Amino acid sequence: MMRTRPLKVALLGCGVVGSEVARIMTTHADDLAARIGAPVELAGVAVRRTGKAREGNDPALVTTDATALVKRGDIDVVVEVIGGIEPARTLITTAFEHGASVVSANKALLAQDGAALHAAAEAHGKDLYYEAAVAGAIPLIRPLRESLAGDKVNRVLGIVNGTTNFILDKMDSTGAGYQEALDEATALGYAEADPTADVEGFDAAAKAAILAGIAFHTRVRLDDVYREGMTEVTAADFRSAKEMGCTIKLLAICERSKDGTSVTARVHPAMIPLSHPLASVRGAYNAVFVESDAAGQLMFYGPGAGGSPTASAVLGDLVAVCRNRLSGATGPGESAYADLTVSPMGDVVTRYHISLDVADKPGVLAQVATVFAEHGVSIDTVRQQGKDGEASLVVVTHRASDAALSGTVEALRKLDTVRGVASIMRVEGE
Amino acid sequence: MMRTRPLKVALLGCGVVGSEVARIMTTHADDLAARIGAPVELAGVAVRRTGKAREGNDPALVTTDATALVKRGDIDVVVEVIGGIEPARTLITTAFEHGASVVSANKALLAQDGAALHAAAEAHGKDLYYEAAVAGAIPLIRPLRESLAGDKVNRVLGIVNGTTNFILDKMDSTGAGYQEALDEATALGYAEADPTADVEGFDAAAKAAILAGIAFHTRVRLDDVYREGMTEVTAADFRSAKEMGCTIKLLAICERSKDGTSVTARVHPAMIPLSHPLASVRGAYNAVFVESDAAGQLMFYGPGAGGSPTASAVLGDLVAVCRNRLSGATGPGESAYADLTVSPMGDVVTRYHISLDVADKPGVLAQVATVFAEHGVSIDTVRQQGKDGEASLVVVTHRASDAALSGTVEALRKLDTVRGVASIMRVEGE
């Protein structure tokens, strides 16, 4: 069974993930060969600067000329773990043009240019695999794309960013504010010096776009994903959540509409009941909940980032792509045949928890309730708390569209008796 | 892209799972065709008696002659959801001989004859897929076999039987005894009239054999799996577990030894800490925890049985097998190259919780402690409770081999001061 000519792998990028990929390819060479049916050989490692990459690798393999490496013509698989849009995008398309298949961990690029990259792969009859782009080591792309290929996915609800889950978990367990929890995350290496991509939800939005595309067999672009960060979540929000038997998580939510003709994708902080499996996802872990017609509710849990976990996902793809090459086949490509409408955030229907600062006088509740009623937003519960002439009103609604809720809030802000809207938080997972 | 000649599917068995497979093949025909790249057509449904199967299916498709159906020669994929060893085994090998690939949900058969069936599939260049055989809709075979193909799995720890989890969860939450909880499970349809296969761990043992084989790339036969049922778990055991901050689950545990050269597989009730993700798996749900070198800890959770969830897994495999046929390739076959030693239960190392009924007089603890020491089993904690001249002694050990523990218990039984060994339970997941 075993072929002796090795499959040649070009590794683009040799940082935290790339160096782990290179290390495991060496230490697990025999296992990889047995599982693929042929040996795999690291044919080159492209880096920006050669200094550090030479440490663990054969110096003769290390190059700063990534383009020349992917153009060599004898490369079977290009593993792209550079990240970012360019030069990764050009290198991947060049790889296809020169006969290689590609394994990528690049969520930003896949979310932005997935359709074009899939088209390039298909045009050249090559594979494009990217399990590592979403939720690190957690098998998610393959289960959605293959295990559930005979089912109809209605909802994907996930914690797909470890940094923000670490911060929110810390706020939940210690009562700390956002800044304090962020500082701890930074000190421990869970947050980058510039945490914008994580805390503003850009990273999660890229993953939501990828997941929605695969789950619904429909192209979902990054611009289609509604995005709200978690920098404004306060310790008071966590106290409110606790009163409701909830906690707060930054969620990526991809949903099919009830009539099945449209989908939505969004990222924002939300309250979820403590009884929901996602509520107990601690620290920097990720977890994704999938709901489908036949399978029901599934959950996938694990480390969402880190060199080794991401390398595990990359190598799983590498084995699959190598096996495909040996058998002359390709794996499932982009599946966008369903071509459903991607609806805007206004169409999203969910429940809301709204905190209002109001004047502490008779008739305020009636006024507020009237505004909700006028916008067709039905109230589930109201709680009033008065102190020193000021009062707060906490309203939890039944399910309503985001558009109706926005209209309600706008009208509430115009009421003389409403001093301010302290917070608006969606309630999910019920 | 779309081929017009349909792929022909023969369905063997039309019970709870089979009828769902047939239903979804009809209602989701367009989606399946788009995902496969060709339409799939139900070419025949083999049943034992034609009466009921005719209800949902075209009567012309229904036959009681399964052998003739798989021998037709124009069948692309045989879906076997009959269960049991025969006639399923002969029908599957006949299918390979007549050019079909096979999707099966048959855990008993795969656990017993997996190697022979894989060999038959390979000899004929056909696929044998069986995601539905373990943990219903939960993607598990594919993640272990493909997503983690570049990683080294060290441990699989799972709740793979919904009936027993329902019973144990009921005992935990209500304080009920085994029989009372079983009666409720039977009344609600979670347990069969004869619950032996579930409560004695036979079902879980078959799944453990399959999981261990895939996780460790080594043949693990059903006989290699140590099996202990959960019929002797008592309400008192749950009280003891609670005192330790634990609950009790029937676990399937597949482990690689520390030196990497051998593996073990076993099924038995065990205490696990409430903080372990498996502790919160409720009702008839299944969940499997996987630990690997690079990915770290992953968990897969979902409905482990039922017509629709199992059908979801079957159809995911059907799509994959059909795609493979169209591209002239086959998916990953059996991977048993590692050929590790499968060690007996005596070699398993874990912790133990032992309840002894002892005479309430001085020196008993010293006697008991001496027996543990003589057998090299180190004690972590001891708790003594005296009442009316009788006393109970609860010993929790450090990690020790099953052989050492068995020797200890045998010696304890011979002590005059030990009236009886009330329970021995392993402690896992720490």
Description:
2 copies of one chain form a homodimer. Chain A has 430 residues and is of the alpha/beta class. Chain A is 37% helix and 27% strand. The first copy, chain A, has 3 domains: 7-137 and 307-327, Rossmann fold (3-Layer(aba) Sandwich); 141-303, Dihydrodipicolinate Reductase, domain 2 (2-Layer Sandwich); 348-427, 2-Layer Sandwich (Alpha-Beta Plaits). The first copy, chain A, is built from 15 helices and 18 strands. In chain A, strands 7, 8, 9, 10, 11, 12, 13, 14, 15, 16, 17 and 18 form a 12-stranded mixed sheet that branches. Chain A has a 6-stranded parallel sheet with strand order 3-2-1-4-5-6, with helices on both faces. The first copy, chain A, is elongated, with a radius of gyration of 24 Å. The interface between A and B is large, with 59 and 58 residues. Strand 12 of chain A pairs antiparallel with strand 12 (296-303) of chain B.
The CATH homologous superfamily of the largest domain in chain A is termed Dihydrodipicolinate Reductase, domain 2
Structural class of chain A: alpha/beta
At the fold tier of CATH, the topology name of the largest domain in chain A is Dihydrodipicolinate Reductase, domain 2
Describe the oligomeric state of these chains in a short phrase: homodimer
Give Rg of chain A in angstroms.
24 Å
Query: In whole angstroms, how far apart are the ends of chain A?
Result: 52 Å
CATH C-level label of the largest domain in chain A? Alpha Beta
Model regions low in confidence, pLDDT < 50 over at least 5 residues of chain A:
none
Largest sheet of chain A: 12 strands, mixed
At CATH's second level, what is the architecture of the largest domain in chain A? Answer: 2-Layer Sandwich
Number of helices of chain A: 15
Largest interface: A-B, 59 and 58 residues
GO molecular function (chains A, B): homoserine dehydrogenase activity
Organism (chains A, B): Streptomyces eurythermus
Family (chains A, B): Belongs to the homoserine dehydrogenase family.
InterPro entries (chains A, B): ACT-like_dom_sf, ACT_dom, Asp/hSer_DH_NAD-bd, HDH, HDH_cat, HDH_CS, NAD(P)-bd_dom_sf
